[in-house]
Write a structure and sequence with these properties.
Layout lengths: L31 H5 L13 H13 L8 H15 L6 H18 L13 E2 L2 H28 L15 H34 L19 E2 L1 H8 L6 H21 L1 H16 L5 H8 L7 H8 L10 H29 L6 H14 L2 H10 L5 H25 L10 H5 L1 H7 L13 H10 L3 H5 L14
Parallel strand pairs: 1-2
Helix pairs in contact: 3-5, 3-6, 4-8, 5-6, 5-9, 7-8, 8-12, 9-12, 12-15, 15-17
């Protein structure tokens, strides 16, 4: 379930990673220019690249930003990447078509779910508008992970002047504090660059505000990105209005769910934070790896950096948090799949092909898969999505639309990971109590209960239970 390092621990490019979901649209190593100074590792020092490298380093350190992520840099990197790809303003015709698709989607969903419409008109955005509108949500999601990564990596670095090898010249020890402070600032900038590249990549793929399984807007407004909707349908041979309507149904169903299940967003974010709290680095393992390292040998240093020695190992608590996160994401997507299937049944000729396209997108690594693989190293399993959809379908058959949706009323009612493996058992265990079964209980049972437990009035009466002919004072 988790075989990738979390955000901030990505090592050098691995040829075996080709084709795997990546969170960024640019280089995997934002500081790769430093390696180029030595000719790519092991070559001659290239003075011609020194000026450019120092300029890039200066930009990284000059941009503002307190905390584990340099958000100004993340924003600027993402905007520059989107501008380089071309990001035209949404035209009037595209806007009207998207708004009409969302209105029709709301009408169809009224019959497929008991959750009412959010009451908001559609927002129709360019990629840059999506970036600007979703940055606050990304801050809530990413910062807990980045903060704990920074803390874990900080535990590896010595404090100013402390933990340095014996015999270090005093003038170098005096420089240690500023250098370590700069290293932490560079870490914040590195996170900012990595995040900016990842957000630019996502902005080029998402079709709405809920593609990753966690809503990125706060008001429940359905969102469509016409350019990405068009790219989604490219080559399918399906009319553009059907593609647009199907994706509007999915986006609107997501927004209805998160609007009317207020605990869901916080539970998803809490699972990410619970994972982040357990991030730590094995300093003893690092010390062993670098004990005999020759700092004048760049190839040896590159080998250590690529060995995974800096990558944290997941604790049992972290694995449990990842399991909760995967289960909740699967339940959300499974519910949306089931509701949209019901809404389009007999109405949308291309529904089966569009459904299969969504599934293939997940298997190949869609926005949700890329986000959580990069953020917490979670490899989402498409099988879990299908199992969750099966549970919701069986709930619908057994309890109807209202009964199925009522499961979302409290987090203790929703299926667990074990329940996804045993849908029939979950239906049996979670069946609501039929009060009608109590009507046939014998009347004597009620009398026996009354006799066994005296009424409050009787118990409070002075001398209750005494023989009236007996003097209690004797």
């Amino acid at each position: 379930m988790s075989d990738r390092p979390p955000f901030g621990f990505s090592g050098p490019d691995d040829p075996d990673d080709e084709g795997r979901p990546q969170g960024g649209g640019g280089p995997a190593d934002p500081l790769g220019f430093l390696a180029n100074l030595t000719g790519g590792g092991g070559g001659q020092f290239d003075m011609g690249q020194l000026g450019a490298a120092l300029q890039q380093l200066g930009r990284m350190l000059q941009t503002g930003g307190e905390g584990p992520v340099n958000w100004e840099m993340a924003h600027d990197v993402a905007r520059q990447e989107l501008a380089s790809q071309g990001d035209p303003v949404v035209g009037g015709a595209d806007r009207r078509a998207a708004e009409e698709a969302v209105r029709l989607a709301d009408l169809w969903l009224d019959q497929a779910t008991s959750f009412p419409a959010t009451g908001h008109d559609a927002a129709v955005w360019s990629r840059s508008q999506w970036l600007e509108a979703t940055l606050p949500a990304w801050r809530r999601i990413v910062e807990p992970v980045a903060e704990h990564v920074q803390t874990a990596m900080g535990s590896v670095l010595p404090s100013a002047g402390e933990g340095l090898p014996p015999g270090v010249p005093p003038e170098f020890a005096a420089m240690a504090g500023p250098l370590l402070g700069m290293a932490r600032q560079m870490g914040s900038a590195m996170f900012g660059m990595q995040l900016g590249q990842g957000l630019a990549s996502l902005a080029g793929e998402v079709v709405g505000a809920a593609d990753i399984g966690i809503p990125l807007t706060a008001d429940g407004r359905p969102v469509l990105l016409p350019r990405n909707v068009e790219a989604f349908g490219a080559g399918l041979g399906i009319p553009a209005d059907e593609v647009r309507l199907y994706l509007a149904l999915r986006e609107t169903a997501h927004q209805r769910l998160f609007t009317h299940v207020p605990w869901l967003r916080s539970r998803l974010e809490a699972a990410v934070e619970a994972y982040a709290r357990g991030i730590h680095v094995d300093t003893a393992r690092i010390e062993e790896a670098v004990r005999d390292l020759d700092p004048s040998n760049p190839a040896a240093l590159q080998e250590v950096l690529g060995s995974g020695v800096f990558e944290p190992e997941d604790s049992p608590e972290q694995l449990a948090a990842l399991a909760r996160l995967e289960t909740l994401l699967a339940l959300v997507e499974g519910w949306v799949d089931q509701v949209v299937d019901a809404a389009v049944d007999g109405r949308l000729p291309s529904a089966d092909r569009l459904r299969e396209t969504v599934r293939r997108r997940r298997a190949a690594g869609g926005p949700a898969e890329k986000t959580f693989a990069t953020l917490v190293g979670l490899e989402l399993r498409p099988r879990r999505w299908r199992e969750a959809a099966t549970v919701w379908a069986e709930l619908l058959q057994a309890r109807g639309v209202a009964g199925r949706d009522a499961v979302w009323e409290h987090p203790d009612l929703v299926p667990t990971a074990d329940d996804l493996d045993d849908p029939t058992g979950y239906l049996r265990r979670s069946a609501p109590l039929d009060l009608g079964e109590l009507e046939g209980l014998p009347a004597v049972a009620e009398g026996e209960a009354d006799a066994a437990e005296p009424r409050g009035d009787d118990a409070a009466e002075p001398g209750g239970g005494e023989d009236p002919g007996t003097d209690p004072g004797r």
